[in-house]
Amino acid sequence: MKFTKEYQNTVNVLLEMMKLVKSGQTKVNISELAIKHKISKIFTQHSLRHLVQSGILKSSVGKSGGYSFAKDIEEITLLEIHKSLGEEMDLKIQGTEFDLTSKLEQSLKETSLSCLNNTK
Fold first, then answer.
1. The domain spanning residue 58 has which CATH number?
2. Is the pTM of this model over 0.70?
3. Distance of alpha carbon 23 from alpha carbon 20, whole angstroms
4. What are the distances in angstroms from CA 102 to CA 30, 75, 98?
5. Among candidates 93, 120, 113, 106, which has minimal Cα distance to 10?
6. How many domains does the chain have?
7. β-bridge mates for residue 5, sequence order
């Protein structure tokens, strides 16, 4: 099983936001994130809009606008990010009763965004 490119890019953008926030930046510009990860601004904006709608991020417009975390990064789980993007998870093996979906969901629920930052 592979995660979608949107999910992987979104997690990488959030990790970059964490670095910038830790360095003292209070709001992050979407263009800055898109350029850093070589993804389109529109694609980045689309993904981050989902995160705003689900309460992971906040956004503000204007000259000093940008994106910021709406909650502590320790509380943001990989499952929450996955669900906010509207992605499906189906790990049933065809022709059997075997289903790994709940095990993967539990693992993603137990893994916070900040845990990934500690692995780099």
1. 1.10.10.10
2. yes
3. 5
4. 34, 20, 11
5. 113
6. 1
7. none
What percent of the chain has a predicted confidence (pLDDT) above 90?
27
In whole angstroms, give the CA distance from residue 40 to residue 85: 17
In the Cβ-directed half-sphere of 110, how many Cα atoms lie within 13 Å? 6
SS (H, E, C) the chain: CCCCHHHHHHHHHHHHHHHHHHCCCCCECHHHHHHHHCCCHHHHHHHHHHHHHCCCEEEECCCCCEEEECCCHHHCEHHHHHHHCCCCCCCECCCCCCECHHHHHHHHHHCEHHHHHCCC
Identify the band that residue 1 occupies on the pLDDT scale cut at 50, 70 and 90: low
> In this predicted model, what pLDDT tens digit does every residue of 25-57 receive, in sequence order?
888 888 888 888 788 888 888 899 999 999 999
Provide the residue range defining the domain that includes 37: 5-117
- Which amino acid is present at 44? T
